[in-house]
Amino acid sequence: MDVPKFELTNQNNQTISDQDMLGKVYVVEFFFTNCPTICPIMNQNLKEVEKAISDSNFGVISITIDPKRDTPENLKIHADRLGIQNPNWHFLTGDRDYIYKLSTEFNIYVGEDESTAEGLNHSGKLALIDKNGKIRSRYDERGFPILYYSGLNYTDPEGKNGSLAGQYHPQIEWLKEDIKKLLEE
């Protein structure tokens, strides 16, 4: 599946689009800087991925779902606070309706109404994009397709996700493996 077309503003006030990322392997996440729950974990896990990959053809696209507060200036502060060195890690902002529509095109859940607390709900899913602008995935150990990676390594205590109760899901490790494979293509 082709990556949805996008064009947003990054933490350096530069316009970044899907076309700018062609030739790179990258991960897309939806997040916001003031998120008190999963976003800090997702950002730290993506930093771990970035550290393990260290390839100039690898990048991360972090799209805020709270553009009113996450201005380019605030995204720059966030990137600096995280110690991001990769010039291909773009923290993107823009029009909230556009971002919401983009999340639906990616099929990654983001709350619709930003004026409510629900509007800042979002999934911890990550999309992996290859050098040709295609969304890529893998199969889990039981042969089921994983269309998106979890931004969180997690244990499924009750076996609700098609796994055995208590099974550990090493999604970030899988993501690293798959990025390395795609960089070699």
From TrEMBL:
Keywords, ordered alphabetically: Copper, Disulfide bond, Metal-binding
UniProt cross-references to InterPro entries, sorted A to Z: SCO1/SenC (IPR003782), Thioredoxin-like_sf (IPR036249), Thioredoxin_domain (IPR013766)
GO molecular function: metal ion binding
Binding locations of Cu cation: 35, 39, 122
One Pfam assignment: SCO1-SenC
SUPFAM superfamilies with a match to the protein in the record: Thioredoxin-like
Bridged cysteine pairs (disulfide): 35-39
PROSITE patterns in the cross-refs: THIOREDOXIN_2
Superkingdom of origin organism: Bacteria
Every Thioredoxin domain range: 1-160
PANTHER family, per the entry: ELECTRON TRANSPORT PROTIN SCO1/SENC FAMILY MEMBER (PTHR12151), LINALOOL DEHYDRATASE_ISOMERASE DOMAIN-CONTAINING PROTEIN (PTHR12151:SF25)
Family (UniProt): Belongs to the SCO1/2 family.
Name listed for the protein in its UniProt record: SCO family protein
Organism: Moheibacter lacus
